[in-house]
Design goal:
This protein is α/β, with parallel strands linked by helices and 467 residues long. 24% of the residues lie in helices and 35% in strands. It folds into two domains: 291 residues, no CATH class; 49 residues, no CATH class.
């Protein structure tokens, strides 16, 4: 990756530490047929997956880098390490995890969060999931929650039926890269009628330098089922850049409900280039709640294909971009069935020369009658050096639809600052309060602990943004 990135002080980022754990295997930098086959061999995968990976590699090599979004010129694929195996087994008991890895996740708070309110938890460290657990009562109901590598080997029929069906291998260059090098991620199957009342959670941690993390998450919610899934992401601070290129596929069968929550807080030396898409069948409801605070560059557009009559989808997006950051995020809603409804709410704040962009697609195919689309974008700019852009695209091929789009850009108000400072707050405290209030309408959709942590992270990032 680009070695010109500025070296950041760990005091600027709570999770910027790294530990001295020695992996059991680390691939050489660079991507080739040999390195892809090596990953497949180490994982003891079936022949069809090896061929899938090699097909994806050819597509990746043939496709150009996207040039329509954020600046990706600093990505150097030849310098990336594509697979690091941190440990030679997976733990179902936290006490079995190697001490230095366990200390890392305890500093992040994963075990404590699991004990408090999660139905199941997973922790991925570099390329592999090293810890996984699910409550016994859910397992007895037939709920499957494991890492994706395990699912490939232990649940081959259901895995192969759905894998790569929502995001095809050639969807885009970074999805093809993930398909060639994927490792780790979460696999969830919820049987018909089962409601998982407590959230399932996964945490993704990059520890190594010049590293690429390519987890693959596959969620299947059968008819009438419900679940909430949360993921968190952090990485150490290095003087060189790392790459995170995940793929998430969700299949929401008829009248199911899936809520997917992401709190992304990568360090400012990570390119975060993610493809996420769901397919919602008749009467299903899919929610993306997407919180983007960290990274050097983020390009992420959670999508839903509304494939069944009466399907619904919501995307609620938060983006905060400070100095040296570009948050290029949004949503894609594709209506291919009648009586479908989608809502997109995007709120962004830029400061210190940072840039936020909303990039979205509203698509209605012919025959998808009575579809309804609502898009609302609110941007707050804190200083003259910062920037906010909106790039909406609408492709409507059906007349009997209702489409709404609203965009609003505002600056930090002097009157609000004066009022709060007159009540004894410093300029930084006042600005942080205004920003958290700006995001507040979306915070209510987060679990309480996550909302509290989000507000705290926003306040930390706002320090030095003004004054």
């Amino acid at each position: 990756m680009n070695t010109k990135s500025p070296k950041l002080s760990p005091t600027e980022y709570r999770y910027g530490f790294h530990d001295s754990h020695k992996p059991v295997f680390s691939a050489e930098p660079g991507l080739s047929r040999r390195s892809v086959e090596e990953i497949s061999h180490i994982k003891d995968e079936p022949e069809w997956m090896r061929k899938f990976r090699l097909d994806a590699l050819r597509i990746f090599e043939a496709k150009p880098m996207p040039t329509w979004g954020a600046d990706l010129s600093g990505v150097d694929f030849a310098k990336i390490i594509y697979y690091i195996r941190p440990w030679d087994k997976k733990a179902n008991n936290w006490d079995e995890v190697p001490p230095e890895i366990k200390t890392t996740f305890e500093r992040i708070g994963v075990p404590e969060a699991e004990r408090k309110f999660f139905a199941g938890a997973a922790a991925q460290y570099d390329s592999d999931v090293i810890y996984h657990a699910i409550r016994d009562n859910l397992a007895r109901k037939g709920v499957i929650f494991c890492d994706t590598d395990t699912a490939l080997l232990e649940y081959p029929e259901i895995f192969r039926k759905y894998f790569g069906t929502v995001i095809p291998v050639g969807d885009n260059k970074l999805a093809a890269l993930n398909s060639a090098c994927w490792s780790g991620g979460s696999f969830i199957y919820v049987p018909k009628g089962v409601k998982v009342e407590m959230p399932l959670q996964a945490y993704f941690r990059i520890n190594s330098e010049n590293f690429g993390q390519f987890e693959r998450t596959l969620i299947i919610a059968d008819e009438g089922s419900e679940l909430t899934y949360l993921e968190g992401c952090t990485a150490p601070i290095y003087s060189t850049d790392s790459l995170h290129a995940a793929v998430v596929e969700i299949i929401a069968h008829s009248h199911s409900r899936v809520r997917y929550i992401t709190v992304q807080n990568w360090s400012k030396n990570v390119y975060n280039l993610v493809t996420k898409r769901a397919r919602a069948e008749e009467g299903a409801f899919v929610e993306w709640i997407d919180c983007n605070l960290g990274s050097k560059v983020t390009m992420k557009y959670p999508s839903v294909i509304l494939a069944g009559r009466g399907a619904r989808a919501d995307t609620l997006s938060i983006a905060l971009a400070g100095s040296g950051q570009s948050q290029d995020a949004g949503a894609k809603m594709i209506h291919i069935a009648s009586d479908t409804i989608s809502n997109v709410v995007s709120k962004s704040v830029s400061f210190g020369g940072g840039r936020t962009s909303y990039r979205g697609l509203s698509r209605v195919v012919r025959g998808a009658k009575n579809s309804r689309i609502s898009v609302r974008c609110d941007a707050l700019i804190l200083d003259p050096e910062s920037r906010a852009d909106t790039y909406p695209t609408q492709k409507i091929d059906e007349e009997q639809v209702r489409v709404e789009h609203e965009a609003r850009v505002s600056k930090l108000g002097e009157k609000e600052l004066f009022y709060l400072r007159s009540r004894g707050l410093s300029e930084i405290e006042a600005s942080s309060l205004i920003v958290t209030g700006f995001f507040e309408p979306l915070m209510k959709y987060l679990p309480v602990d996550y909302a509290v942590e989000m507000n705290r992270l926003i306040e930390l990032q706002m320090e030095g943004a003004v004054g």
